[in-house]
Amino acid sequence: MVMFWVSLLAISVLLYLLLDGFDLGVGMLLGTTNSEENRRAMLNAVGPVWDGNETWLVVTGVILWGAFPVVYATLLSAFYIPVILMLLGLILRGVSFEFRNQHLGTRWIWDSCFILGSLAASFMQGVMVGAMVQGLQFTDGQYSGGVFGWFSDFSILCGAGLCLGYALLGACWLVRKCESEVREVARRQIPILAAAVLAFLIVVFVHALSDNLPIMHRWIDRPYLFVFPAIGAVAAVVLASSILHHNDHWPFYMVSLMFAAAFGTLALSFWPYMIPFEITIDAAAAPPSTLSFMFWGEGLWVFPLMLLYTAIGYRVFRGKLGSMHGHY
Fold first, then answer.
1. Could you tell me the pTM of the whole model?
2. Residue 277 pLDDT class (50, 70, 90 cuts)
């Protein structure tokens, strides 16, 4: 049961990163154009799926709360401010997405809120990942880092890096879904964003090496982890080729593969810890009776139905947007 719930948690996190990642990226890229027609096309590209994408964050929270309550309590204690700011950003996105179509005079306000909410949510997610990679402060098995224990130059750097990664994913989604000017602008943005992400990865690696972060020892002790960066490098080559050949189909899949490779590297670097390097998976797991009880609800029915709903939704709204006017 423990391995079952760890697997579902990993799938939920990865799906959230990929699915909500691209619509957060589109939200940030909304600030790169002042054309109402282009903004409408960009929002229509994520309109049918953005709220469904965010439900994977809810699933992640539910699994942590029910199956790994120690981790849930510890992370909320450590990341209270980042989590609140992330949720406020997501709420602001949802409100502005709907309100921008209700009054033309205030549309610029809601567009700004959508951009700001996307940036805040993305940045705070990266900050939390960076803080976990760097290591949280514990005393006698209890979190002791205080309200701002997550704040460091490394976590801020990771926040900026995830914003760039999401923006790259969003640009690839726009190439896949849009036509004419929006697609061409997004195609020109991809090489710039990809170069920025590569520069970020180099800086992070140098930072981790110079600060002798514990995760560096995991990479040395587990050389098989370098398989994932190799996969990411191959995906980057295919991404570059697809952009040069003006292919609209492959860029999104290749950047998604790069995200999956990065996620796999981190997940296996942390193993067998859920909070590196303090709380193991077995120590964090709820009693077997709780895990079994959850299996008959979320594990057997809710999770598969959500996967089915997501697949059907993307199937229904597949293909290019074409010419659309007004709200999707």
1. 0.94
2. confident
Angstrom distance (rounded) from CA 99 to CA 110? 7
pLDDT over threshold 60, residue 323: no
Continuous H helices in the chain: 2-29, 36-46, 50-67, 69-78, 80-99, 107-134, 153-177, 180-210, 214-221, 227-244, 250-270, 281-284, 288-294, 303-316
Distance CA 223, CA 213 (A): 17
| Average pLDDT of the segment spanning 50-73 | 94
Cα gap 85→125, rounded to integer Å: 10
Name, in order, each residue with C-beta under 8 angstroms of 320's C-beta and a sequence gap of 6 or more. 177, 178, 179
Mean pLDDT of 119-135: 95
- Per the CB < 8 A criterion, the answer to whether 90 and 134 are in contact is no
**Interacting residues of 210 by C-beta distance below 8 A, sequence separation 6+:** none
Chain-centre distance for alpha carbon 313? 19
pLDDT at 325: 53
Parse the chain into domains and list their residue ranges. 2-180+288-316
- Full DSSP string of 28-96: HHGGG---HHHHHHHHHHHTTTHHHHHHHHHHHHHHHHHH-HHHHHHHHHHSHHHHHHHHHHHHHHHHH
- Both structure tokens of 92: 């602001």
